[in-house]
User: What shape does this take?
Amino acid sequence: MNNNHQQRVSRYIKAKDNNKPHLMEAVFSQQATLKMDVQTDNISFPADVSGVEQITQTLVCEFNSTYENIYTLCLADTLQQTSTTLNCRWLVCMTEKVSGALRVGFGDYRWRFEDQPPQLACELTIVIDTMTILPDEALPAVMHWFDQQPYPWTRSSELLQSMPDIQPLTELELAGYLANSS
Assistant: This one.
């Protein structure tokens, strides 16, 4: 894995999951673009965002005003990269601040980086395949499961081995998603 790209993606995850907007300027170029391909009705984002300030507003500030307890895991065994790109699958869990509802989702990251130093991200496409609201009784097991994973890079096989045997995750077809990731 390109260490520079890995560090940028890890920093983005830290900024997004932990409400640290100041970290985003070390991830994205000033003119970076964000494209959102949302294939579910359970979450919404603007389709296109331009500039590091607006990307930060969308992915960190607004996101963290709605959600908390956010864990985003990038699946290292799905990694595909070139000198200027990094693509991988991701899995997330979080709770809604107002209702406390637990959400689990997955999709793909498609990163493109500048070809000259400092090689900041100039484009990110986030594909959200699924975002599901799980029943309240699933919250402790799912949060514990995510908290026990290597963060933010993990392997699909590790997730599968430790996945709690609870019906909401089975119905989400998460095992199939993870099995097809490795």
Summary: The beta strands are 28-38, 48-50, 67-75, 80-81, 85-96, 102-113, 121-134, 153-154. The longest strand covers residues 121-134.
